[in-house]
Inverse folding.
């Protein structure tokens, strides 16, 4: 395998890991924001809790 091809594969794998890490971090933040973070506009409740009480 040529050096250029090896470098391209290495860069691609690194990029894919970064993409995956980014998706995981964003997913974690969204879950925190919707399920744990208290919102003043919802009487200091989490959105998931407020939705459950309104249903």
């Amino acid at each position: 395998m040529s050096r250029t091809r090896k470098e391209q594969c290495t860069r691609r794998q690194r990029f894919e890991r970064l993409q995956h890490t980014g998706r995981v971090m964003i997913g974690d933040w969204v879950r925190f924001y919707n399920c744990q973070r208290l919102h003043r506009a919802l009487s200091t409740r989490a959105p998931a809790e407020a939705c459950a009480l309104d249903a």
In short: The helical segments are 3-35, 47-54. The CA atoms of residues 30 and 42 lie 17 Å apart. The chain has a mean pLDDT of 85. Residues 3-54 form one domain.
